[in-house]
Amino acid sequence: MNAYKFLREGRVGPFSGVRWPAPGEWLQAAGGGGRACEEQVHACRRADLPEWMDAELWRVELDGDVRVDCGKLVADRGRLVERVATWDAVFMAAFAEACTLRARDAALVVLAAPGAAGAARAAGAARAALAGAVDAGAIAAVAADPGVIDDLGADEARAVGYAGDAARHVLGARAQPATAPTHAAVNGFIAAHAAAFAHDDLAAVERERAWQATWIARHAGL
């Protein structure tokens, strides 16, 4: 079965610490005792990609008893086929920014909700400022501007805060490329929960994760 696998630098499993062999060589699950991540070989489907990000992304082949278990694939053995060359720090920062724009859009939904006259004026001003912010730097600036956020209600401030937090993760990913996997993963989480908050619907988390998986697959050429 063909699947995907995220690894740390040097083909190392992020949870097990196991170094995968060179492409083409099988990694056999230990089975029996030991740590859970060593008892089976883990990989993921395209839909699972946003949940498991790390420094390296590989196409893998799984064999034996292959099953779905809690948002991942588990198998008796697996082998690396090829590394996805497009998955690098620049790509991860771009994904983090795409999630930031989604968090901004979720905030715009909250800011458009009707409220008392004074609160509505503050929300309207914040909405105009945030709608004009088209990249992470601009979104971070709006979210940190006391003139924009100080008079917002709690819900509006929280929604803008999600977008601002995500924007700062983009800036962090670009300033320190080695940290890009963490920033990208966190922003996927932020965008998903910003959507759920904006729409008051936990199902929005799954919809947002599906959008993220599609974005990754399309832009990475999967």
Strand content: 5-15%
How many domains? The number is: 2
Q: Provide a count of the helices.
A: 8
Radius of gyration: 20 Å
Distance between the first and last residues' Cα: 15 Å
How does the major sheet shape up?
4 strands, antiparallel
Keywords:
222 residues; 2 domains; four-stranded antiparallel sheet
What are the SSEs and their pairings?
Elements: E1 2-7, E2 26-28, H1 36-39, E3 41-43, E4 56-63, E5 67-68, E6 73-75, E7 77-83, H2 89-111, H3 117-131, H4 136-143, H5 146-149, H6 154-175, H7 180-199, H8 203-220
Antiparallel strand pairs: 1-4, 2-7, 3-6, 4-7, 5-6
Helix pairs in contact: 2-3, 2-6, 2-7, 4-6, 6-7, 7-8
Describe the structure.
Strand 5 (67-68) and strand 6 form a beta hairpin. The protein has eight helices and seven strands. The strands form two sheets. Strands 1-4-7-2 form a four-stranded antiparallel β-sheet, with no helix packed on it. It has a three-stranded antiparallel β-sheet with strand order 3-6-5. It has 222 residues and is of the alpha+beta class. It has helices spanning 36-39, 89-111, 117-131, 136-143, 146-149, 154-175, 180-199, 203-220, and strands at residues 2-7, 26-28, 41-43, 56-63, 67-68, 73-75, 77-83. The protein has two domains: 2-83, no CATH class; 89-220.
What would you say about this model in short?
With 222 residues, this protein is α+β, with helices and mostly antiparallel strands.
